[in-house]
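User: Sequence recovery, please. Input:
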């Protein structure tokens, strides 16, 4: 009996010591198991030499190196003032003379071997911080430091998270608990998570945070909240992160008591000028404003007969004495049952191209509708030569399985960034619009709608952390491959066992095509459950607006499926260049992944695969489900190399994913079958339920 008790106790201790709740993200710094590997790294990390102890960014860099080295290598790492004839250490150096780092963007750094030491050098303190994280990443992923030689430079200036967090602690489209910002505690209590958040962001080069929802409350501009935001800004500053605020355009009325918020009214100008000055008293390096205006019911300049440029320029003027900027979102679409939402942003902003103040940058979602799992790039990219445009990606998985489906988003971000707009001929990729190089813009910005929340592991699904990580890495350097980023993240977060790394990378690379296959194959879009945006509802035909329904987008009828965006109907294709039209505009040449985005295809039309549209659609839905089973099998093979809590969490979620992939498949196949009047191909087993059965699942979601 005693023996069994002892075994039980030991097993529990063992379990506890390995249980990983994911809270340390990719900055785990667990001891490297292999002694020889540890010795190799120890040779290069005997000390950390810092000549400028007082600088708060440098001191964060040396602290991080110390913590990292002590954890990973299980030894003390001393911080010293100057390495006099000492070798085998790390030297942190801010240097203007360092030829390696001249003419490179702010935050660039070099890491190189010199005189028996490793030097991390940059023109700026924050570059030294980024270099320190890079060196730790090398150790975490077991890469040799011998003769290390790296020069790294960010391609985008402002690398930003957009939090859609509300003052009451909820998060719009958040799937990982409540807000990380504890407004009720601030400014008096600083949650240690703010520091962990800052470290995680700095480790991937994120240097800006917009802390509140774009559907903004004026409350964030009150003195009470500015004091709270200041407290957060003070925590983030030593990690090189600037704070932005999303503002409600009606604030001069709701908060200032004015009669109007008309951007051409002198009193309104004065109000914003004073408010902007006041903000700077709290936060001298304030990043600027983020504005959602005249979109989905939010107030804006059009309420007063003014344009987006009038509104943005008024705020830019208030920002003139300061370094901050104004980020104005292009996510606008008026309710027009006969129009095409695809074209709205482009058409509303096109007449304003060139009319924005240089302090304004217009933030555009990656695709023209709304963060669908696969969207063609937004035609504004390449269509606007006189306005700096920022990229807005969604890291939180509103339409991508939220926190239960495994979907790695780096391939999606990259697909958009790598697409050629042909705006100035071949080689005019979206990435070159964003980084400012195509049109010679000074400002450049990439924003990701954050997926963070109060859950212990920050992001809900353990793999959702990889999307935060990937966003930061790509904002820093969009030429990194999805594989490289995945492997880094796996090595830092899950395991460095080579075989398991390969399996997990494979899961991650296959995850997005799998998800798209059982939800939106062949370019279908916007068929999710109303409001909550989870699960299928392709039959949705009545909503607050026609362009919030599913039938508006898929246009299924007895003839075929898909939204005709050629000259025959909406002509949205016309917003793209001729070269894009030559391919996407032709149903026989169009990439099948985008086919139903642009064409209404007859059910019995033969596609390039040799199958008819109906057959291909069925095969893809069924394949998607089978691929989830593959992901599950692959995950089983890594069990011994993964912390058990994480392993079980992913395993459980994959089960949900399998069940819901079948839900999507059955809903869509049974629903479209009503239009085709054709049987499901004989090689596939038909769903064992009716369309009515599936509709009931969705109805339950809407019960009150
Ligand atoms: C949609 C979301 C909505 C956001 C909106 C936006 O459903 O909650 O407020 O985008 O980006 O995707 O403003």
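Assistant: Recovered sequence (704 residues):
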């Amino acid at each position: 009996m005693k023996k069994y008790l002892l075994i039980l106790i030991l097993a529990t201790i063992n379990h506890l010591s390995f249980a990983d709740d994911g809270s340390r993200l990719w900055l785990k710094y667990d001891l490297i198991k292999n002694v020889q590997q540890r010795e190799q790294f120890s040779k290069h990390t005997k000390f950390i030499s810092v000549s400028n102890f007082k600088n708060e960014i440098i001191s964060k860099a040396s602290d991080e190196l110390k913590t990292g080295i002590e954890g990973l290598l299980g030894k003390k790492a001393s911080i010293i003032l100057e390495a006099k004839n000492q070798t085998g250490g790390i030297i942190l150096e801010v240097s203007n003379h360092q030829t390696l780092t001249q003419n490179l963007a702010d935050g660039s750094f070099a890491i190189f071997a010199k005189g028996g030491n490793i030097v991390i050098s940059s023109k700026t303190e924050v570059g030294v911080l980024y270099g320190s994280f890079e060196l730790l990443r090398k150790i975490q992923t077991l890469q040799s430091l011998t003769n290390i030689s790296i020069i790294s430079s960010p391609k985008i200036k402002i690398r930003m998270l957009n939090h859609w967090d509300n003052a009451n602690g909820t998060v719009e489209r958040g799937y990982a608990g409540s807000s990380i910002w504890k407004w009720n505690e601030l400014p008096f209590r600083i949650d240690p998570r703010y520091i962990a958040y800052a470290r995680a962001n700095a480790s991937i080069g994120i240097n800006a945070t917009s802390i509140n929802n774009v559907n903004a409350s004026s409350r964030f501009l009150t003195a009470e909240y500015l004091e709270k935001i200041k407290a957060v800004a003070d925590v983030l500053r030593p990690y090189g992160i600037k704070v932005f605020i999303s503002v409600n355009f009606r604030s001069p009325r709701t908060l200032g008591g004015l009669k109007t918020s008309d951007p051409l009214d002198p009193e309104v100008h004065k109000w914003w000028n004073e408010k902007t000055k006041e903000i700077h008293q709290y936060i001298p390096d304030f990043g600027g404003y983020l504005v959602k205006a005249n979109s989905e019911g939010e107030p804006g300049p059009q309420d007063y007969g003014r344009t987006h440029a009038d509104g943005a320029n008024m705020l830019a003027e208030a920002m003139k004495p300061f370094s901050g900027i104004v980020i104005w979102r292009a996510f606008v679409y008026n309710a027009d049952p006969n129009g095409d939402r695809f074209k709205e942003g482009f058409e509303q902003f096109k007449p304003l191209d060139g009319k924005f103040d240089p302090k304004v940058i217009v933030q555009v979602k990656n695709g023209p509708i709304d963060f669908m799992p696969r969207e063609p790039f937004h035609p504004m990219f390449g269509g606007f030569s006189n306005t700096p445009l920022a990229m807005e990606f969604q890291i939180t998985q509103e339409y991508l399985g939220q926190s239960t489906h495994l979907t790695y988003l780096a391939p999606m971000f990259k697909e958009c960034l790598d697409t050629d707009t042909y705006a100035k001929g071949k080689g005019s990729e979206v990435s070159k619009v964003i980084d400012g190089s195509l049109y010679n813009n000074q400002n450049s910005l990439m924003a990701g709608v954050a997926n963070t929340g109060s859950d212990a592991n920050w992001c809900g699904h353990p793999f959702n952390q990889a999307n935060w990580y990937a966003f930061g890495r790509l904002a820093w350097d969009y030429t990194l491959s999805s594989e490289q980023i995945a492997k880094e993240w796996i090595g830092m977060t899950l395991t460095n066992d080579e075989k398991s790394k390969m399996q997990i990378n494979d899961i991650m690379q296959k995850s997005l095509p799998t998800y798209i296959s059982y939800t939106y194959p062949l370019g279908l879009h916007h068929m999710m459950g109303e409001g909550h945006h989870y699960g299928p509802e392709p039959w949705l035909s009545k909503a607050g607006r026609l362009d919030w329904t599913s039938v508006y987008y898929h246009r299924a009828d007895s003839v075929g499926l898909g939204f005709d965006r050629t000259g025959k109907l909406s002509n949205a294709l016309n917003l793209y260049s001729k070269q894009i039209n030559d391919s996407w505009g032709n149903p026989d040449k169009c990439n099948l992944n985008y086919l139903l985005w642009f064409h209404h295809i007859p059910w019995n039309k033969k596609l390039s695969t040799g199958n008819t549209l109906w057959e291909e659609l069925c095969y893809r839905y069924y394949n998607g489900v089978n691929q989830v089973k593959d992901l599950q099998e692959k995950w089983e093979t890594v069990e011994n190399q993964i912390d058990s809590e994480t392993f079980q969490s992913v395993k459980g979620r994959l089960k949900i994913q399998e069940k819901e992939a079948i839900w999507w498949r059955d809903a869509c196949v049974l629903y479209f079958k009503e239009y085709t009047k054709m049987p499901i191909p004989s090689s596939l087993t038909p769903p064992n339920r009716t369309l009515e059965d599936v509709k009931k699942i969705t109805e339950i979601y809407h019960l009150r």
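The first strand starts at residue 47 and ends at 50.
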